[in-house]
Each structure stands twice: as C-alpha cells, then as structure tokens.
Amino acid sequence: MLMRSVCLMFCLAIAPAFALAPGARAPEIAGQLMDGGKTLKLSGLRGKVVYLDFWASWCPPCRVVLPDLAKMHDELAPRGFVVLGVNLDQNTGQALRLMQKAGVKYPNLHGLNEKMLSAWKMSAMPAAYIIDRRGIVRAVHEGFRPSEFAAMRAQVERILGDKKK
Amino acid sequence: MKAWTLAVALLLGGCALEPVEPWQRENLARPEMRWKAGLVQESAMRAHVYSSKEAGGGSAAHSASGCGCN
Q: A102 to each of A22, A66, A70, how far by Cα in Å?
C-alpha cells in the first residue's frame, strides 16, 4: 500500500513535466484570425509543413523572433510551408502593432480556449512546434535565442525536403 | 494506517497540480511585477528617503537653512 502511494505521488508530481514529444500527432487547434473574423484550423493545413508559434507581446524573446519568422514564411511559402502564429495576449492591440512592425503576413490565431492550449503541454514561451505534411510533430523548441534560428530554419528545410505521403 | 497513508499521498499529490501555465503569465510579466525596480526608480526612491531623513540639511540636490521648509 505504501509503495503504491509513493508511486501515485511520484506520478502526480512528474505529470506536468512531460512535453509533447516529437513523433506525436499534432493536437487540433482552431481559432479566429487576428486580422479578420475568419476561423482557421490546423488540420486545414495538412499537406504543408507548419511552424506553429505560440507567442505574446509581453514575452521579449517572442518579439525578437517575429521578423525572422516573417522572412522564413515569405521565402519558403512557395515550397509548401506556413508559419501559424497563436497569440496569447489578453488584448491584441500591442500584438497587432508588433506584427505590423515586423512585417508579419502569416496567419495568427487568437482567443483559444484552455483545453486546446493544454493539449500542447508547453512549459515556456515562445513555444514552437514544427509539424510535417502528415500532421506529425517533428521538432519542439521552447524559448528562443537568435543564435539558434539558423539551425531551426535548416530543420524546417530538411522536413520540407521529405517525400510527400 | 492505510487511511493515513492515503490521506498524506493525496495531500502531497495536490502540491503538484495546477502549475501556472506559460500563457497565464501576462500579469506576472509586467514591469511593476519585477523583484527590483529599475535604476531610475530606485535612485529616485533613495533620494526621497535621504531627503526625508535629512530634512534638517535640505535634500541631496541643494543646501538649505536647516528649517526643512525648502
């Protein structure tokens, strides 16, 4: 009984520590686009490589990565790539200003519910998930340093080069 | 004994629940939530405290007569 209780306590303690691992199927996410009333679903982008970026204007590294993501999206879009932002601000005013300043043209969702966000099991921000054409999470990046961007982009290009299935 | 063990397990297990999720940290990220104020606010506060304590000698910025009225 004691052993069982200790195991139970251990399981409860480490439960939040498991992040969504590469190889897992990407949970569904859907929300309204920030620049209009339209709704967009992640599953609607199946067949494309998606860089899913959870960000907020109050998170400094999230702001730093915006111009790089905008450039990567514009350059790789013809090859079947899309950056999908998920903004987590309570009010979108500051986020919209930052997007305009960084030249962001990729879609950004807003107003997602807790259940959808919890499914991604992120522990830091920005949290980025590279999802392949079949909807499988291939890489997870939490936090951001400018020196890491080149490696992240190379990873995206490698996944873009995979055969379509 | 069994009931005690189960009660302790449930109580301690409860400590691991409900972490603050990354998207819930907007208010915690505000500048006024920092442990330490910025350099400007800090020095302004120090000057204010110094002036209050040393009222007889005037503030740090200028000399005075000692009446504490200017």
A: 29, 6, 7
Question: Which residue in chain A has the smallest CA separation from B21?
Answer: A123
DSSP string computed for A110-149: E---HHHHHTT---SSSEEEEE-TTSBEEEEEES--GGGH
- Does the interface ipTM go beyond 0.85? no
The pLDDT tens digits for A82-126 are 999 999 999 999 999 999 999 999 999 998 999 999 999 998 999
pTM of the prediction? 0.74
Point out which residues pair with A142 in neighbouring strands: A127
Give the closest-approach CA distance of A120 to chain B in angstroms. 11
Which residue in the block uniquely carries the two structure tokens 């200017």?
Answer: B70
Q: How far is A64 from chain B (nearest CA, A)?
A: 16
How far is it, in rounded angstroms, from Cα A131 to Cα A160? 10
Measured between CA atoms, the residue of chain B closest to residue A91 is: B26
